């Protein structure tokens, strides 16, 4: 070993959003001039910098580099002790790599964000808003929930009433609001209320909403019903008081007709009675029985017996269909993808750097369908404007030529704000277009590493278009 190292100090504590510095002393114990390259490794590497990155030392001399730790104030900076290391590679002897290790302790911080979805609900007997709670701190959040309003006019049912949320995750609380008094007649009334997120040793976070209580029957309808009932009662009373007397003279007419018919004629003689023909009932002619034609068109006729069929809707092409066709025509690595655009549905797939989604139309992407060829497969996850990483660390994964989906096309799920993606045996490049920011620039990974694309997590801007290459 031709190198001696020392960390001063080996352990350090830093607050998220601030900086801490550690000195690394290096001595060349060999007999030749050598140049050393420094590279941070481990889980703290994304927010660790080394200055200078290279150091040239003569035999027997000592140099110093500074390690600066700047953990972000996000859930990515896990609270507690975090090991760190620096890989030192000599230029003259690259096989003699040295990796000094230390420990950096990140202090915990708590930050909670809550939002009512929707902020205003309407109903006659109940309202059902949802409370979205985001833990954007770096420690687990434990909180209880409660509701209140002026005058105690509402009752509250919250499921669940207590939550535990991991850093960087979110939960939805189903809330049922019930008015203590029902408005049977009259116009609607607005009642403001508050839902509180209470944590031990911290001030409660309150979110304000509005419950619009509607009347069971509108005032004009009650007036119309009352007037109709009064008119009906008045009509019945008048009818009973002035009911007309109806008589019929049909019986008298029939009696007179019978007497004149049966009485003997004064001029008739007994020896020559009149012959009166006996009336006979007219013959009833029955219609010939007929059989009904079959409803399904099986008989003869000009209409024929064939039944019309609806045209079959063609199957929509997926990203896997497109990448397999492209791989059959052109050898090499390929990536094809398509976007589910809000209010528009799935677009046709595009490949190798073409634009999926829309720009300048304020239409958000809700889901992505991706497939690759000759990259060993692809895996990814989607972050949403409301809810963040809904599936947590459960990434979607697919092998070459197979569809991989991230996000959701369901109406209840919010639009995407970003995504993570990687290919298993190769690098992947992405460029994301987000609302009010435009294209954010192309970024690529090392083979097998993942990359994030889209809106900064704290800004919550909707994703509108993407480009991918491999």
TrEMBL record:
Transmembrane segment boundaries: 220-242
Superkingdom classification of source: Bacteria
Region of interest: Disordered: 287-320
Any Pfam family matching the protein: ChW
Coiled coil: none
Keywords: Membrane, Transmembrane, Transmembrane helix
Keyword Cell inner membrane: no
Composition skew (Gly residues), residue ranges: 296-306
Record flagged with keyword Membrane: yes
Protein name as annotated: Hydrolase
Organism in which the protein naturally occurs: Streptomyces rishiriensis
Classification lineage: Bacteria, Bacillati, Actinomycetota, Actinomycetes, Kitasatosporales
